[in-house]
Design goal:
Length: 228
């Protein structure tokens, strides 16, 4: 009896591309528009899990955030993160968007099993610029990019690793964007000890980079950083 050979597992690039094809017109596209990031969604390769790849079944209905890597002129994908955008977590009963989302019983973000902390948007590191941003969270990095500030990011305040330091030491200025909360301020204080060129950029408690840019515009962020 001949055994049928199984198809090879989909590569990370194939999965990310498949999810990106499901993005237009999806709940993920609606959510990203609400966050004011729709104009950069295609550039960042955002996707939607309409048809989960093998092993991603529990991620159905989530937003896909690929960690793109420049490789030989083409974009490779180092890893994928999934974000909950379920209406019961992101919207009020009347259908309006929540100011503060509620994700009870599950994490807002999920990474692939075995994933290690990585820098998001490392493409920013190869842009010719005397300055660079550094965000805590992928959305904040995208919002800073809208302001013309190349901005990698980390997935959370505890995700920084020693080997990230050298990538930022050659810039005149590193704008450290921090949420207006305790953990965010502690994160920037930690980075200031490691990066002598760091300039903390603080926001009021109700703001982060994403909300600030959406409300006041990209130019307002540039002015906040002392850029023209």
């Amino acid at each position: 009896m001949l055994l049928k050979s199984l198809p090879p597992p989909a590569s990370m690039v194939d999965m990310a591309q498949g999810y990106s094809l499901s993005f237009p017109g999806s709940p993920a596209a609606e959510y990203i528009k609400h966050r004011g990031l729709d104009s950069i969604a295609a550039r960042m390769g955002l996707g939607y899990v309409a048809h989960p790849a093998t092993g991603h079944e529990k991620q159905a209905g989530r937003l896909v955030i690929p960690y793109l890597r420049p490789a030989g002129g083409e974009h490779a994908v180092a890893t994928i993160r999934f974000r909950c955008i379920a209406e019961e977590c992101t919207k009020n009963p009347d259908g309006s968007w929540r100011e503060d989302e509620e994700h009870e019983g599950h994490g807002k973000y999920q990474s692939l099993p075995g994933s290690r902390p990585m820098l998001y948007n490392t493409q920013a590191l190869i842009q010719p610029s005397p300055y660079i941003g550094l965000s805590e969270g992928e959305f904040d990095g995208m919002a800073a990019e809208l302001a013309g500030i190349p901005t990698p990011g980390v997935s959370g305040v505890s995700a920084w690793r020693d080997h990230f330091d050298p990538a930022f030491l050659g810039y005149e200025r590193v704008f450290g964007f921090t949420d207006g909360d305790g953990p965010g301020e502690q994160f920037i204080a930690k980075l200031a000890e490691r990066l002598p060129n760091l300039i903390p950029i603080y926001f009021d408690k109700k703001y982060d980079v994403c909300r600030f840019v959406k409300e006041f515009g990209p130019q307002a962020l540039r002015e906040k950083c002392g850029l023209s």
